[in-house]
Design brief:
about 300 residues, alpha/beta, Rossmann fold, seven-stranded mixed beta sheet, signal, AB_hydrolase_fold
Length: about 300
């Protein structure tokens, strides 16, 4: 009888440990969902603010015959359920690192669009041994200079504006979020069918999450961290919404300044593509990505 009780206690303890381990695994990946497609070298694709895997659909179709794609959807964006407390990008980065370890991915290529590119820069800076090549699709280590048009802009200068913007978005309804997104569509994409997808994704996003992430992007400057990246980096700039050719050198210099400390980094601009260049210039983007991965 004593042996039986001891065995039952041991089984109970093991069950509790396994349950705690499973809960920990769930918690680690709770800030995003993943769809895996294809076979081959691993590529992690991270969408931008208020977007999901739909932005990569055309690119993924072309890549998945030769690569294993890990398509990330962040909690609170484009219909992926929001967390009770909005996601923090620093936590997403740590969970992505855990995901790479648990899936035993061997230095996966990182491809990020806009906010997703910021996450890729943060992941590659924080965990340089885990990550492979990085392709930033119109996304930067520090967002604020894009708005200020000044590379000298600091986090301290942006803090009041970030707080104000977070409060502004928190008060929105999803319908208002969609309407606000639609108003700025001219710089996002060229074709109406793609504009409709972007608007729909915004309308399915959680305004509190959007506000919190925007505030974090405006007050997190990775420029002092990206020198830690050990793999080659390709930054692709979308210049299709630049008002005139006269402005191009200044825009290009602003982007270049953000990657100057990375030992193996280059910048290429497409002056026809708008922000969602995977829709505006899909063939060009695919060629850039495949050539860079194979180099």
């Amino acid at each position: 009888m004593l042996k039986q009780k001891a065995f039952m206690l041991l089984c109970s303890a093991v069950f509790m440990l396994l349950s705690q381990s499973l809960q920990a695994d769930e918690a680690r990946t709770s800030s995003f969902q993943v769809l895996v497609e294809g076979q081959g070298k691993a590529i992690i694709l991270i969408p931008g603010l208020m977007s999901d895997q739909r932005v990569w659909q055309q690119l993924a179709t072309a890549l998945k015959p030769n690569y294993q794609l890990h398509l990330i959807n962040l909690a609170g964006f484009a219909g992926t359920p929001a967390l009770s407390t909005p996601v923090k990008l620093t936590e997403v980065t740590a969970e992505l690192a855990d995901y790479i370890r648990h899936q035993q991915l061997q230095q996966p290529v990182l491809i990020g669009h806009s906010m997703g590119a910021f996450l890729a820069f943060q992941l590659a800076s924080s965990y340089p041994q885990l990550t492979g090549k990085l392709i930033a699709v119109d996304g930067l280590p520090y967002l604020a200079p894009v708005f200020s048009r000044d590379s000298a802009t600091t986090v301290a200068q942006m803090a009041p504006q970030a707080k104000m913007m977070q409060q502004y978005y928190q008060q929105m309804t999803p319908a208002q979020l969609a309407a606000s997104t639609e108003q700025g569509m001219a710089i996002q994409v060229s074709r109406p069918e793609h504009a409709a997808i972007i608007t729909a994704m915004a309308g399915a996003s959680d305004p509190a999450t959007v506000g919190a992430v925007i505030a974090e992007l405006l007050t997190t400057d990775l420029r002092s961290e990206v020198h830690k990246i050990q793999q080659p980096v390709l930054l692709l700039g979308a210049g299709g919404a630049v008002a005139s050719e006269i402005m191009r050198p200044a825009v290009q210099a602003l982007y270049q300044q953000q990657i100057n400390t990375i030992s193996q980094a280059r910048l290429d601009f497409n002056w026809q593509a708008r922000h969602f260049m995977m829709w505006d210039q899909p063939e060009w983007l695919l060629a850039q990505i495949t050539d860079f991965i194979k180099e």
